Amino acid sequence: MLSRRRIWGLTAIVATAVASLCWTSFDASAKASYACPYTLTQTYSAALRLLRVDNGYNVTERDPDAAYILFDYQSRESGNRTTSGAIEMIPSGDNVTVLVKLPQMPSYHETVLLDSLKRKLESEYGEPPRRPQPKPKDPPDAGADASPDGRTRRAP
């Protein structure tokens, strides 16, 4: 039979293990995304200017062809502490998916950075470009037996 002291010890170990697993999985998946309606070139250049000019962050690596920017992030609330961050841009159909990753910071930092990028794009490029609506497809040809309204006639 287990003593109360031993049960509490085992409970504490299990609780610590569960908490550390939850914290690790939360940290690993932390990122914010945005389906940007602007072009990849516009989005990349606005993100680079936002990081270097507007916020004064040190850009450690960038590649316009692969559409990513690595930078040193420093928040006002963390003092002189810097952490690594990344912005990735992925073309997806009519949009560009923008991912902001600050794995060592709370997720609201990523959201704030994304919101700043959205405002910058709108202020510099205006309203997002309107994509032409796809034309509706013509109804399929019903053949020579079709009635004037396009429906097929029934055989008598």
Mind explaining what this structure looks like?
The chain is of the alpha+beta class and 156 residues long. The protein folds into 2 domains: 1-30; 31-125, Alpha-D-Glucose-1,6-Bisphosphate, Chain A, domain 4 (2-Layer Sandwich). It has helices at 4-28, 40-54, 107-125, and strands at 32-36, 58-63, 68-73, 83-92, 95-101. It has a 5-stranded antiparallel β-sheet, covered by helices on one side. A hairpin with a 2-residue loop joins strand 4 (83-92) and strand 5 (95-101). Helix 2 (40-54) crosses helix 3 (107-125). The radius of gyration is 27 Å and the shape is elongated. The protein starts with a helix and ends in a 31-residue tail after the last helix.
Look at the structure and give the mean pLDDT: 78
Total separate domains:
2
CATH class group of the largest domain: Alpha Beta
Structural class by helix and strand composition: alpha+beta
Query: In percent terms, what proportion of residues is strand?
Result: 15-25%
Helix content: 25-40%
Number of strands: 5
Which fold does the CATH topology of the largest domain refer to?
Answer: Alpha-D-Glucose-1,6-Bisphosphate, Chain A, domain 4
Number of helical segments with 4 or more residues: 3
Using the CA coordinates, give the radius of gyration: 27 Å
What composes the largest sheet?
A: 5 strands, antiparallel
Which regions are unreliable across 5 or more consecutive residues at pLDDT < 50?
A: 14-30
Globally, the shape reads elongated
Strand order of the largest sheet: 1-5-4-3-2
Corresponding CATH architecture of the largest domain: 2-Layer Sandwich
- What is the straight-line distance between the termini? 88 Å
Instruction: Give the SSE string.
Output: HEHEEEEH
